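new request in #modeling-help
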Amino acid sequence: MTSAGPTPAPGPGAAAPAEAWRPSERQLEREAVRRARARRSRLVAAASTAIVATAAVVALTTSPGWPRVQETFFSAEHAARALPSILEGLWLNVRIMVGCGVTIAILGLTVAILRTLTGPVAFPLRIAATVYTDVFRGLPLLLLIYLLGFGVPALQLQGLPDSLLFWGCVALVLSYSSFVAEVFRAGIESIHPSQRAAARSLGLSHAQTLRFVVLPQAIRRVLPPLMNDLVSLQKDSGLVAVLGVIDAIRAAQIATADDFNYTPYVVAGLVFVALTIPMARIADRVARRAGHHGPGGVV
Amino acid sequence: MTRRDDRAAAPDTPAAASPADTPVLRARGLRKAFGDHVVLADVDLDVHAGECVVLIGASGSGKSTVLRCVNLLERIDDGLLELQGDDIADPRVRVDAVRARMGVVFQSYNLFPHMSVLDNVTLAPVRVHRVPRAQARERAMSMLERVGLADKAAARPDELSGGQQQRVAIARALVNRPALMLLDEVTSALDPELVGEVLDLLRSLKDEGMTMILNTHEMGFARQVADTVCVLDGGRIIERGAPAQVLDHPEHERTRRFLSRLHV
């Protein structure tokens, strides 16, 4: 009906000759006003950003203690020296994050599904899942890491691994899964009952309804809070260092101990942030592609 | 087509300039396209105080888009849009203030499910119009009485039937004393036996002199309440006039085809 071509093609009997339209004077003026306003707000934004940034830099660099702070926290020389060992430690953080992340997703989802089960048969499962989330959300993570990392190997039970790293990861998984389970549950319960009704009406079983209808919508909806937990996990993966394994923060700490220069900490902080930013962008993209409804229209 | 020409000349006559004759809504050459798809090509529409204009036309003919443009929910691509003589398409106007002068009722009610019926109705008076809470409640209660639902004030929307929900939605719009009511297929989502209560309410609103534009597929109702029926097709109003004239003696071939499909 309408053609996107550059040349007008007024076919015989065209209902709406879209190509014939030229903006009126009034419309051109409106667009000019909108452009002027957009220009002005861009200008204000740029100016205010520049002023604040300049003020911050000036305040920082003219402060009396700046030279010492710069030497202690932002020394290029120390940064270069500490970087290799920090990156090596970071590799451990990444492995912990990925390994635990996958396990947490599975365990968390399982617990969430158990909590949404209905019927008397599922009562014990429901109770177990509820007790699990209540207990492990409440326990401080550090305590859990000590308890499992030092306690379980001390039992000297046959067949259980005695690696400190393994038990540190188990503590992370147990703690995080309880949080993630609640996120998943919120997502599952946010799907309107009519969706279940429609799926069951087609003859899909309870499990099939979850698998093909409810979960795809629920997971898409809770992707941003899940991302929060993943980033948080990435940082907390450093807590296993208390068991003696060397991650990025521990590596920075060791480097710092040489000469009391804190630059390695800053470097470790920066590599963590550098890891987080692409993850957040990827999550945004995934959510968008999955058809997440952003702010709609003019309102 | 001939009627269209008569009307196009009208705004230039000196009589139209006097404030008493200023229409509540005046639209000229409204245009709205979504990408390449031109939904409104060139729509002219006047709605005078106390007038009830009914828009009819096949789905996709642009009826809803007209209402959404008038309420500034969609930004028009061109044309003139005046509410009580004020240019409301000007980018410098405060959109919220303009919307506060109109009432909208949607096809699927759009009540806020987390609020009681009364809170739904008092939200805008209290937050937008800064009416003292006690006074807003009083006004809301009398409005709920007006739509016959005073006893449901404490209920949640999901405890009501569709017809009751739609009547609450109408009360929610009316309580702000709008200059213009926009009603978008307000009975389309209702069970047939619930349509009547909503239409009765609209009919009494009309009798009280409310100015309104409504989209509907209920031709019988259009015949009863409309002062003017406008037929939309391909983004234009192809025919307009008194209901008896347009519905019984349509001039335009497309109108005839549209009406005959409905009567089957």
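bot summary: Residues 220 and 292 of chain A are 7 Å apart (CA to CA).
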